[in-house]
Amino acid sequence: MEEEKLLSRKQNAQRNNNKKRLMDACSDLAELYMNQGRYKLAIAQYKQLVDLHHIENDMYYARINRGIGEAYQGLRLFEEALKYHQIYLDVVLVQKQPNYLEKQRALATLGHTYLIWASETETDKETKLEKANKFLMDGLEVTESLSSINQLEKADMLSRLYTNLGLVKEIKGQYNDAADLIKKSIGICKPHDIYEQLTRNYLSMAGLCEKIGDNNEAIRNYNLCIDVAKKVKSKVSLLSTALLAKSELLVRLTEYHGAKTILQKAYKLKGLSDEERKNIGEKLKVVVCMCQTEDKLVVSSGDHKELKILYEKMGDAACIFQCYQKAVEYYTMMLEHAQKSGGNDEELKNCYFSLAETYKDNGDYFQVWAETKGKLPSLD
């Protein structure tokens, strides 16, 4: 409905040759499309704004380019995104009247873009991380020098920068340094009630704790994350992300009934997008299946054919959650019971194949070779 109104307003402005109203409509449409994740449409509106504006060295032009860069980042076209983010910074730097606030935003945006790019690719990862760190540190220096903005806004900027610097360290595997930086961000967020960033910080801390194997501390941080996320009423996706992340850890810990309870809470949240609800629903179905299958394993009579089927279901479900080590355990039990039940060659071949594929997914290529050597060919 809102899109139709804006498109109608844009058409009226075009018919009446009203440039100001046309630019306002393009700007509003671009913002709407960005919020909806319709990035290609947003780019089209932003680029029309560039054509209408004509001036290429003022702050309005700089902000348009920032918008284009953010849209390309949404499309995961990072080179294009960086090109426009750099234009944003370059224009800010040539202003006669220094604009340190916009300079900070431009530096932070460039740093964050390099960080996201590094997290999603292995190509030149270290170079991207170094650039991310440089821009973020430059942004931090500018932020600390700002004196003309209110303390809440400054605290929000600082907390985001420290979090992103922590994420750079995390990707590098420097977990202690990462934790120190994220804790620093938490220390800024808490007294200023910056709940959105605080939620993200607890989520990051939980992920760090998982990586170092401290699952109890990870769960504690997930619980803190969930509690704070409930205060961010406008962004239910933050709460759903926290609940989903905790449920996935519980699955990895084989606490399937606990994971089911968490996913049920997530599924009942109001305001979820269709895609979010579908994703949670699919995970919930898998966990319900794991709970039911686990219960059947407890009361199983010991029939090897039945046990083979049950362990296969558990292995398949564990793979969906990318719990490959646990899946290997289940598939190994599946193979053992298939052998004890006198399974035929085709059945055993499928068991070996599932094991080999799961070892491959887990990055254990020696075990892929060990499981298949002399087994799959002989069963053909």
From TrEMBL:
Q: Where in the cell is it found?
A: Nucleus
**Major site of localization recorded for this protein:** nucleus
The processes (GO biological process) annotated in the record are: double-strand break repair via homologous recombination; replication fork processing
Q: Which InterPro entries does this one have? A: MMS22L-TONSL_complex_comp, TPR-like_helical_dom_sf, TPR_rpt
**Any idea which UniProt keywords this protein has?**
Nucleus, Repeat
Q: Which domain of life is it from?
A: Eukaryota
One cellular component term from this protein's GO annotations in UniProt: nuclear replication fork
Q: What's the protein here called?
A: Uncharacterized protein
